[in-house]
Specification:
Elements lengths: L1 H18 L1 H4 L1 H8 L3 H25 L5 H20 L4 H13 L1 H14 L6 H29 L2 H22 L7 H5 L11 H21 L2 H9 L4 H27 L1 H25 L4 H31 L5 H29 L1 H22 L14
Length: 395
């Protein structure tokens, strides 16, 4: 079980590292392909748009497949996309390579958490989801800073080649280590229930709040290198170290929140969204006043770490909660949640690119603050949204 969950976590690590290459290597890609930083930032938006549009149809199309086969399909597409991107002679070809990866991105995130939940007892579903999302956190700790550093030292193409090799390796490992996980006849019949997920008020509310919060996060996160450089005042190799610290803070917080997620999900989500709003509020003040010095640096670094800790811990909480709203069809519920998440990435990247060109970091971070506060208010105002069924609340 531990080996299988580790394989899933590594798959998440490689996927997120690939997705975030335009963030960590943004200046290097822009310089090599002769594109503006704002244009490169829109790659994340295009990626998220494709993922959002294809997630639900692909989840339905593959509903009767064994889960391992579905996961392997997504990993094969990831490997091919990285090879295309590494050899891309133009910005258009690079975008095409990322689109191939995006086609199955939402499908991967729709099935990977339910796969983890099937490998453990029902009482540990939240902790299994958190274990898989540890790969996401490690992508921020290791993957994103490493690709940023490799892009600066040897070029962004070498960084993408390394991701392609890792994707091929995890594909083979997943084929060898994971069970087939076929879908039962009863589960296949439950596919019809997916047409009614839009009537699941808890799931729809959760998805809308996710859309708002993720939009706020990605308005600034798409340009986090710019925020660290121009607002906090960290440059050069220290910037990569702070990116790594961002992920380390997230990894620590995910581990700390794993058990509370199964026991007190609403309070845990409220605390994390509140911490994220606080981080953005502090960064807004720093960006607005343009002060330099040791105090600004210390406060800015603390805000970046709080940002990393809160934002990284939230996705496993939200996806576990989404699956709980439809225990008879967790894949379908995950599909709707992932679609909302990808739409948030798309909207955040586009809005962030626009604000980056017009108002700079102060405008981006202020917009992030407002939207995250709106999401926080929504979580606080709802009742029963994160309710844990009695059968899954026992120790």
């Amino acid at each position: 079980m531990g080996v299988q969950l580790t394989v899933l976590a590594v798959a998440a690590f490689v996927y997120v590292t690939a997705e975030m290459v335009p963030v960590g290597a943004l200046p290097a890609i822009a310089g090599d392909l002769g594109a503006s930083e704002g244009l490169v930032g829109t790659l994340l938006a295009a990626y998220a748009l494709v993922a959002a549009v294809t997630t639900v149809p692909l989840v339905r199309l593959t509903a009767h497949w064994p889960r391992r086969r579905t996961l392997l399909l997504t990993l094969l597409c990831l490997t091919a996309s990285q090879l295309i991107s590494a050899m891309a002679p133009t910005f258009t070809v690079l975008a095409g390579g990322l689109v191939l990866c995006a086609l199955t991105h939402g499908l991967m995130w729709s099935v990977i958490a339910p796969i983890g939940a099937r490998l453990v007892p029902a009482t540990h579903a939240g902790r299994a989801t958190t274990a898989i999302y540890a790969g996401t956190s490690l992508a921020l700790v290791v993957g994103n800073p490493l690709t940023a550093a490799m892009s600066e030292l040897w070029g962004w193409r070498q960084a993408v080649v390394a991701i392609a090799i890792a994707a091929a390796a995890v594909t083979i490992t997943a084929w060898l280590a994971l069970p087939s996980l076929p879908i039962s006849n009863n589960a296949i019949r439950d596919v019809r229930l997916r047409e009614r997920h839009h009537r699941n008020n808890r799931l729809v509310t959760l998805s809308v709040l996710t859309l708002v919060g993720v939009t706020g996060h990605f308005i600034s996160y798409t340009f986090i290198v710019v925020v660290i450089r121009d607002v906090v005042g960290v440059h050069g190799p220290q910037l990569a170290w702070l990116l790594a610290s961002f992920g380390i803070a997230g990894l620590i917080s995910m581990g700390a929140m794993a058990r509370p997620l199964d026991l007190w999900p609403r309070a845990t989500v409220l605390g994390c969204v509140g911490a994220l709003a606080t981080a953005f509020a502090v960064l807004t003040v720093l960006a607005t006043h343009h002060r330099t010095g040791a105090l600004t640096l210390a406060v800015g670094v603390a805000a970046i770490l709080l940002w990393g800790a809160s934002s990284t811990a939230l996705p496993p909480m939200l996806q576990a909660s989404a699956m709980r709203t439809a225990p008879e069809d967790p894949d379908g519920a995950s599909g709707l949640y992932v679609t909302a998440f990808q739409m948030g990435i798309m909207a955040g990247s586009l809005i962030g690119g626009l604000l980056h060109e017009t108002g700079g970091p102060p405008a981006m971070i202020a917009a992030s603050t407002v939207l995250v506060v709106v999401a926080l208010s929504g979580v606080a105002a709802t009742r029963g949204l994160f309710e844990v069924p009695q059968a899954t609340s026992r120790k």
